[in-house]
């Protein structure tokens, strides 16, 4: 074996040992890993109550697709469902239904409707900032529309809230 071949064998051997040592080294968990582990193990203080309505139950109450608009479901989880409203391929609003009794801890989201003088389709309503309008259906379900484009106004939000199947939603238990 020549000196040149011996160098190649030693170099390959050292490289293999270095790769083995670095690949097998354990890395200390980051502060994010630790926080994720702690929150995953927590049983109390969860954001959604066990008796919250399944999000998939809400889909049938959303307004159907209308001429010029497209409804695209984006999120569905226990106690909540959401869809984007698009016009000409552009997001103009976000539609959502949430179970206010499904929220645990903190303030009751339905409380903001108690002193409301505004009603839409016979249900108490509130405007939240300049881009959000919500109603409370059956003292339990918040139906909310958030504008994502300046062309989708408060009157548009109010009109679209009335397109939900609100009577059907009020009977959901």
| Percent helix range | 25-40%
What's the number of helices? 4
| Structural class based on helices, strands and sheet pairing | alpha+beta
What string, H for helix and E for strand, traces the elements in order? Answer: HHEEEEEEEHH
Low-confidence stretches: none
The biggest beta sheet reads: 7 strands, antiparallel
The average pLDDT score comes to 85
Shape: elongated
Q: N- to C-terminal separation?
A: 83 Å
Tally of structural domains:
2
Protein name: Lipoprotein
Region (Disordered): 34-60
Organism: Aliterella atlantica CENA595
Signal peptide: 1-23
Describe this structure in words.
This protein is an alpha+beta fold and 173 residues long. It has 2 domains: 3-41; 55-171. Helices cover 27% and strands 28% of the residues. The chain has a 7-stranded antiparallel sheet. The protein is elongated. The mean pLDDT is 85.
Topology (SSEs and partners):
Layout: H1 3-24, H2 31-41, E1 69-77, E2 80-87, E3 90-99, E4 118-120, E5 123-128, E6 132-137, E7 141-147, H3 154-161, H4 166-171
Output the keywords:
173 residues; 7 strands; 28% strand; elongated; signal; Lipoprotein
